[in-house]
Design goal:
Layout (H helix, E strand, L loop, with lengths): L2 H26 L11 H33 L1 H6 L2 H16 L17 H34 L1
Helix pairs in contact: 1-2, 4-5
Length: 149
């Protein structure tokens, strides 16, 4: 079975799980007596699982394709590393831009207002912003390129 077929089936499974969990969360999760959704913890756990499965399968298939390319064409195999290296570079730059200064929040007594958690949150927010902008630029750029072909 090819990597493309495996990734397609995993994609369908992840989409089905996401749709079912969203229906359960929004359709069944609210009650009149409860202050919020009943299944928030389960929904977040499933979200972590889906993200982990998606990343795990992506990394596994990337490694398999890289090994196949190294065996067949070593020079083109190095080119296939440009995507993951670019994403790692985005995370490194986002981490360098992040600030870990504790916030002055009135009434907050939680344990997450510490430099490590604040840098973690900033890193992922900045990297998400960068990746969204890159995706938009690439989408618009590919549409423009199709017009000229």
């Amino acid at each position: 079975m090819s990597a493309h077929k495996i990734s397609t089936w995993v994609e369908y499974i992840l989409i089905a799980l996401a749709v079912v969990s969203t229906i359960v969360f929004y359709g069944i999760g609210f009650q009149d007596t409860a202050p919020g959704p009943d299944y928030t913890d389960q929904f977040l756990g499933l979200t972590y699982l889906l993200v982990g499965l998606g990343l795990g399968v992506t990394l596994l298939l990337s490694v398999i394709n890289f090994v196949k390319k190294v065996i067949a064409e070593p020079k083109s195999a190095l080119k296939s590393l440009s995507g993951p290296v670019f994403i790692i570079l985005i995370f490194v730059v986002a981490y360098a831009m992040s600030d870990g200064t504790p916030l002055k929040l009135q009434g907050y007594t939680g344990t997450d207002n510490v430099p490590s958690m604040l840098k973690f949150a900033d890193t992922f927010l900045f990297s998400m912003y960068a990746l969204i902008v890159i995706a938009l630029i690439m989408t618009i750029g590919s549409s423009i390129m199709k017009l000229f072909k």
